[in-house]
Each structure stands twice: as C-alpha cells, then as structure tokens.
Amino acid sequence: MLPYISVELCFPLLMSPATPQTDLWLERSRFNGMLLGSVSYGMFLTLTIEATLALLRQRRKKRTPLKSTSTALLGYLAITFALATIGFGGNAKYTQMIWIDLRDASGGPPLLIQLELDHWINRMALASYYIMEEIMDVLLLYRCFVIWNKNPIVIIFMTTLFLATVAMAILVLTDSRGAAFYNINFQLAYLCTSVGTNITYTILVAGRIYATRNRVKALVGKQHAEGYTSVIAMVIESAAMYSTLAVLYIIAFATNSNFSNLIFLAISHVQGIAQLLIILRVANGQAYTTDMGSQANASTMRFYSEPHHPPDFRLGSSSTAEMGPVSTKTKLSTNSNLQPEASRESVDAVI
After folding, report:
1. Which residues pair with 302 in a beta bridge?
2. In the chain, what percentage of residues exceed pLDDT 90?
3. Using an 8 Å Cβ cutoff, are 197 and 163 in contact?
4. Is 249 exposed, middle or buried (0-12, 13-18, 19+ CB in 10 A)?
5. CA–CA separation, 4 and 253 (whole Å)
6. Are 146 and 290 in contact, with CB atoms under 8 Å apart?
C-alpha cells in the first residue's frame, strides 16, 4: 500500500502560510475570466468568418436582394471584429503582465488586478469594447426603426436610451485613469442603460413581429404564420443570451463580487455573438423583412389577376410594405398557391 503524501509536501509554496488566502479568489477569478474570454473570442472569430463567407456567397449571385445591404454588413463585421481583437489583445497582454512581467511589483497580482486601469493597455481595451458595443447598438436601433416604420415615438425613446449609454461610456473612460474599476461611479449606470436598451429593443421588436404574426394568421391561416414564430424566438433567444449574462454581471459588480471577473472579459464577445447569429440568418434568407409585414393587413389588400394565368392566388414577392398599422399595401399575384414565405429573401430590414 502506497504511503499517503500530503499536498503540503508536494507543493510547499502553493500551501505556504505566506500566501494571502484572501487574494486567491480574486486571482483565480481574473485568470479564469481570461480563459472564458478566450473561448468567447474564439466563438466570435468563428462566427465572423462564417457570416463573412455567407455574405460574400450571396453577393456573387446575379439576382439577390442582399446586394443592397451586404456591403454595410461586411463593413460592420470588419469594424466590430477589429475592435474585439484590439480589446482581447489588450486583456491578454495585461494577463501576462500580472503574473509574469510585473509579478514582483509592489502589492503583487492582487493590486495589479484591482488597479488595472492604471495601465494604458487596459484603458485601450476598455475603450475598444465600448466603441464596439455602441456600434452594435446602432445596428439594433436600425432594425427597430425599420420594423416600426420609423415611428417617431420609438425613434425618440430608443435614441434617448442610446445617447444615455454613450454618455455613460464617455464618463467611465474619463474617470478610469488611476481608479479601481469598482469605484467608477458611472460604470453601474452604463451597465444598466446598456442592458435596458437591449431589453427594450427585444420587447419592441418581438411585440411588433407578434402583432404582425397574428394579422397574418387571421388572414391566411395558422400554417403561414409559423415563420414569424421562429423569428420571434430568434430575437428573444439572441437577446436573452446577452441580457442574462449582463444582469448577472450587474449584480456581481454592484455587490463588489469577484464573480464579475468571470464575466467581464467575455461579455462584449457574447453580445457580438448574438448579433452574428442574426446576421447569419440574414445571409441565409431567414430573417424578418419589411416585405413580410406587407402580408399582415387584409383591410387594404388589392387583388388583381394577370392575363394568361389561372386565377390561383399566391402572395408573392411583388408586395410593397409600409409597416404602419393601416398603410400596409399588398398585391396578390396569380400563381400556384398561397406562399407568404417568398418575400423573406428581401433583407431591407435586418433583424
């Protein structure tokens, strides 16, 4: 029988009384947070490549509605990926500095973690992620405005939330130099406004699509409204992925818990991943469009029949959409059967 060998004998330095036990959880949370940030960045990188290739494939097609928006989406992918890479690189470099380059600094790794904003590389990473998040919020605003047909109330409300988020981000960056991250007064306000913007967007867009789904269901039957249900689920699921993580982060940050370190270095990547999942659906022609909304209102439908065709009605891509509740106009072209799904190929409104 082998003799028992204690951990203290094998790793005397690890278990040394000189090691400050109260700081171990801080160091572990920061280190593991970097690991989670690396995993989330890898997912973000993979989805960025997939979305880029999907958009390029669509651009090569002779007739595709994606040509009008693919350039903007490709630019969005390039900018957000560059900003995420700068932020991730800065965090990775400072992680190396904590335990290797500056390990003999006064206060050791715990003080380096607490006062990380003393170093320009961390302020650069923080600024890169904030700019990235604001660009992603701009895309959210665009989707919301198109779905609501540029409703003035929606525009004013959502723009106010967005500007509040930008203001909070600027104040955080202004107060960041020489301050402990938990002591920045505006950071909690920034987190709340950012999450509030995403949750409000989800409610507005999902509610609008749900109302459209009900009108389509009443008009052409339940089977033709199923596509809207999947779009609603997509919007809620993609938003929930970020919002759930952000709420946990807010709670941890507000209570000054080291658990926030596990989330902080990954949360921006998760927000980007949620956006990329939607862009992939757009590239595959599975997103909600303005044309889909044109099928929702029966009261102003105009029927016509083309010559030399039997009078079979099919809801085709010739529909013209105005997303207002009364102004919606739809043309019914004469073809084989009723298929409102045909207009989904248009990506005038990217959800």
Report:
1. 331
2. 33
3. no
4. buried
5. 43
6. yes
Tell me how far apart the alpha carbons of residues 109 and 31 are, in angstroms, rounded to a whole number: 11
Q: How do the residues of the chain divide into helix, strand and coil, expressed in percent and rounded to 5? A: 70, 5, 25
At position 96, the amino acid (one-letter code) is Q
pLDDT tens per residue across span 202-245: 888 888 888 887 887 788 777 766 666 666 666 776 677 888 89
Tell me the C-alpha distance between 226 and 208, whole Å: 15
- DSSP, res 300: G
Looking at the DSSP bridge assignments, the partners of residue 2 are none
The pTM assigned to this predicted structure is: 0.75
Please give the single-letter amino acid code of residue 121. I
Task: Give Cα 7 to chain centroid, integer Å.
Answer: 45
Nearest to 278 by CA among 191, 203, 209, 347: 347
pLDDT band at 316 (very low <50, low <70, confident <90, very high): very low
